[in-house]
Design brief:
The structure is a single chain. The chain is an alpha/beta fold and 829 residues long. Among the domains are: 230 residues, P-loop containing nucleotide triphosphate hydrolases (Rossmann fold); 158 residues, Rossmann fold; 33 residues, no CATH class; 92 residues; 38 residues, no CATH class. The chain is 39% helix and 10% strand. The protein is built from 29 helices and 20 strands. The strands form five sheets. A seven-stranded parallel β-sheet has the order 3-4-2-5-6-1-7. Strands 10-11-9-12-13-8-14 form a seven-stranded parallel β-sheet, with helices on both faces. A two-stranded antiparallel sheet has the order 15-16. Strand 10, helix 13 and strand 11 form a beta-alpha-beta unit. Helix 3 packs parallel to helix 4. The longest helix has 47 residues. The radius of gyration is 48 Å and the shape is extended. The N terminus is likely disordered. It comes from Geosmithia morbida.
């Protein structure tokens, strides 16, 4: 049976539509080809010989087409040592503990096997979460996510970045559709606990980058809780530059027969060979001077300066920013907002010459290109931290240099620990001419800027507290540090008071969560040092007045400021309290009381409170106790303050300085000094007297000239005989005298409230006001008119009934005209 094609009105035939079963066949054929490719790829992976040394390029590995094309487009061709050993092992599905030097390509060593694992499993968006990558810091998580986007551009997987500082609600809406997640431990745990419909039951592979940092005491609780949400039938990959082999850590992650891969374990050194490492022995109070001189000597370099705490980073950054060393300055620490942190890392990556002050938040995994110097002003807590810090330079095959500042008390212990880790380091001395003393400038800045002084006090406290909490007392011995000199080197007027609490672990305190889990959009659970911010009202409108009142006491330092500098009688107590870095004191329980004990204590308590004396003020009432917090009231009980002035060199001097006795005696005998002083004063007075006489003579000459000019003007008729001319101008301070014509004009002006006119109009009697016309009921027979006494002034008056009129005349009409006028009035009335 033949069929004819339908024709259009124009005569052209329409193309026949393909049958639906043709598309179905195409899809089935494509699915079959994909299945065959996956099976062939799986056979190639199973046939890998892990002992072979033939893996030198990515093309030698059994990789899928999307992965291979993404790697080629990202310009990765050769395999590094860790990649050549870790990728084939991970492709076979084994658990791995990988360790390699910094900058050796560990990121690709776990990203490539992760993509291949999901590709061979034919993972789709309906299968849920398939791979989880955990990073200890946000910056490292962002870096891993960017590399994943580059090499996985040809895959169809959905990937997401889950870190703090972003909206929790927006993340929760997208999480159920994600196949790959790069996250920080705290935020991921928060989503697993709170986000509805999100789970990791089908997880195929778990990756821990910088695993030793994630597994330490600071992240222990978060990692343990996170692992409970994950299935045990998963593949686990752990990578770091300093890998942990502790059985307890491996048991916590449920590793199954892990393969330990350490490509540089047999090497002579633990750090890259193209890294030059030196250390400088400098006292604690001279570290900032040495650092400033070092920065000034390397203005055309790109350097990272590591400090132990965020408050030190802020203080050094603000101080150097005022000193203007001549190089762009940046600072990065965990307390900054996420947007600011990303902006700083981006700016430093793109900079050619720059100096970045940072904490250990960028010590691990971050890849900054072309870093010339890594400077460690504060001694690292252990050799592993040192390795990660210096690993920010000399990446892969590039060169780099590192310098470590050590106090004399830290030299022996730290150098010995570095030698145990096979770290080659040499001692160098600083040239005296390279040192730049900035102590006087810091004192001047702290004197003029209270905020900078307060920041310096907190930096001092955070550093001393970090030293106190260090466990290795062979390196960190606070009794050998000159804290008074260190305080003076920061520009502080006195040594801040610090109280400690014994028995604390530094990592527990440093990495402890600062706020409980919250479902708010700004909740922070990263445990990487970021301070969470909470909102009391989600959609509340904040006016400019609310913002103004929220800014109170920003320049006026509040109560806890008085705790920084202790009183003389309290400085001896230095071991009972603590100096908390978060500006709050730890509470130590000294005694627990039951209800019965409280009743007994209340019975034993005296009727009135104990009287005590503080700074000369007797505290016997709550009002007196409240006065302690008033600076104005306490100022009456304190001595007068001392005012200082600074010279051009930044040196402080009293406003009134007296010469001491030794210097005075060295100037000569007292009689000679007295005679010399009298002669100098006499010469000064004589010179001043001559100047005064010259000025008086000049004034007399000018007055004489003015008088001659006035006399000449009078003779010419310019002034009247009584005019004073220019003298009036001088006497009135430049205002000319007013003559009689001007006075007459002023008198002729109208006075306010009166009519205008000449003075003659005002000389006469004022016209009396007109009388108000009386009403008809106010008139009577005896009233007389005030007009003229003629007949024309006759007026009718109402009397008796309404309508009746009475005309009265004063005189009897005498003439005919008077009669006519009277008649006319009667007719008109």
């Amino acid at each position: 049976m033949s069929t004819k094609a339908a024709r259009s009105p124009a005569g052209r035939s329409k193309p026949e539509r393909p049958a639906k079963h043709g598309k179905t066949e195409l899809r089935q054929q494509k699915r079959k080809r994909d299945q065959e490719e996956v099976e062939a790829l799986q056979q190639r992976v199973e046939g890998l010989d892990l002992k072979s040394d033939s893996f030198t390029r990515f093309a030698d590995l059994p990789l899928s087409e999307p992965t291979a094309s993404g790697i080629k487009a990202s310009h990765f061709t050769s395999l590094t040592d860790i990649q050549a050993q870790a990728i084939p092992t991970a492709l076979k599905g084994k658990d791995i503990l990988g360790a390699a030097r910094t900058g050796s390509g560990k990121t690709l060593a776990f990203l490539v096997p992760m993509l291949e694992r999901l590709y061979r499993a034919r993972w789709t968006e309906y299968d849920g979460l398939g791979a989880l990558i955990i990073s200890p810091t946000r910056e490292l998580a962002v870096q891993i996510f960017e590399v994943l986007r580059k090499i996985g551009r040809n895959h169809v997987f959905s990937a997401g970045l889950v870190i703090g500082g972003k909206s929790l609600k927006e993340e929760a809406e997208r999480l159920p559709r994600m196949n790959i997640l790069v996250c920080t431990p705290g935020r991921m745990l928060q989503h697993l606990d709170q986000t509805v419909g999100f789970n990791a039951d089908n997880l195929q592979i778990l990756v821990l980058d910088e695993a030793d940092r994630i597994m330490d005491m600071g992240f222990q609780s978060a990692v343990d809780a996170l692992v409970e949400h994950l299935p045990r039938t998963r593949q686990t990959l752990m990578f770091s530059a300093t890998q942990s082999k502790r059985v307890s850590d491996l048991a916590r992650l449920s590793l199954h027969e892990p393969e330990y891969i350490s490509v540089h374990e047999a090497a002579a050194h633990s750090t890259p060979s193209n890294l030059q490492q030196h250390y400088i022995v400098t006292p604690l109070h001279e570290k900032l001077d040495t650092l400033f001189g070092f920065v000034k000597a390397n203005l055309k370099s790109k350097m990272i300066v590591f400090l132990s705490s965020g408050k030190q980073v802020r203080f050094v950054y603000e101080s150097f920013r005022h000193l203007q060393p001549g190089i762009p300055l940046l600072h990065l620490h965990g307390r900054q907002k996420q947007g600011a942190r990303l902006g700083v890392t981006s700016n430093f990556r793109s900079a050619t010459h720059s100096c970045l002050f940072a904490t250990d938040v960028v010590a691990r995994g971050i890849d900054f290109p072309a870093v010339d110097w890594v400077i460690q002003v504060d001694c690292p807590e252990d050799a592993d931290t040192y390795i990660h810090r210096v690993g920010r330079t000399a990446r892969y095959e590039s060169n780099g240099r590192a310098v470590l500042f050590l106090d004399p008390s830290e030299e022996a212990g730290m150098v010995a620990k570095l030698e145990q880790k096979r770290i080659p380091i040499q001692k160098v001395n600083v040239k005296e001419k390279k040192k730049r003393s900035i102590t006087n400038h810091l004192q001047n800045m702290c004197f003029q800027n209270p905020d900078l002084k307060y920041l310096g006090q907190k930096a001092f406290i955070s550093y001393v507290r970090a030293i106190h909490l260090q466990r290795d007392k062979s390196v960190f011995d606070m009794s050998k540090l000159d804290l008074d000199a260190f305080s003076a080197s920061l520009g502080l007027p006195g040594t801040p008071q610090i109280r400690f609490q014994k028995g604390e672990d530094i990592k527990k305190i440093k990495n402890a969560q600062r706020q409980g889990m919250s479902s708010g959009s700004e909740s922070e659970m990263d445990m990487d040092g970021a301070k969470p911010s909470s909102k009391t009202k989600k959609n509340a409108v904040r006016t400019k007045y609310d913002k103004m009142f929220e800014r109170t006491n920003q320049d006026v330092l509040s109560e806890h400021y008085s705790k920084l500098v202790g009183k003389e009688d309290e400085k001896a107590d230095n071991g009972d309290g603590n100096g908390d870095d978060s500006e709050e004191d730890f509470l130590s329980v000294k005694r627990r009381l039951n209800d019965d004990d409280l009743d007994e204590e209340s019975k034993k308590a005296p009727a009135s409170g104990a009287i005590k004396v503080v700074d000369g003020l007797v505290i016997d009432s709550k009002r007196r106790e409240k006065a302690l917090r008033s600076k104005k009231k306490m100022a009456k009980f304190k001595g007068g303050g001392s005012k200082l002035i600074f010279d051009d060199d930044g040196n402080a001097h009293a406003i009134y300085e007296l010469t001491n006795e030794d210097d005075f005696a060295g100037q000569g005998p007292a009689d000679e000094l007295r005679r010399r002083f009298i002669e100098e004063e006499a010469a000064r007075v004589k010179e001043a007297d001559a100047d005064d006489k010259m000025a008086a003579k000049q004034r007399r000459r000018e007055k004489k000239e003015r008088r001659k000019e006035r006399e000449a003007a009078e003779a010419a008729g310019m002034y009247g005989p009584g005019d004073d001319g220019g003298d009036d101008v001088a006497d009135l301070g430049g205002i000319p005298a007013i003559d009689d014509d001007q006075l007459d004009f002023i008198r002729s002006l109208p006075i306010a409230g009166q009519g205008g006119g000449d003075a003659s109009d005002r000389d006469g009697d004022d016209e009396p006001p007109r009388k108000k016309k009386k009403k008809w009921f106010q008139q009577d027979e005896d009233d007389d008119d005030d007009g003229d006494n003629d007949i024309n002034n006759a007026k009718p008056k109402k009397k008796g009934k309404p309508g009746a009129k009475v005309f009265e005349v004063d005189e009897e009409p005498q003439t005919l005209e008077d009669l006519e006028a009277l008649a006319t009035g009667l007719l008109n009335g």
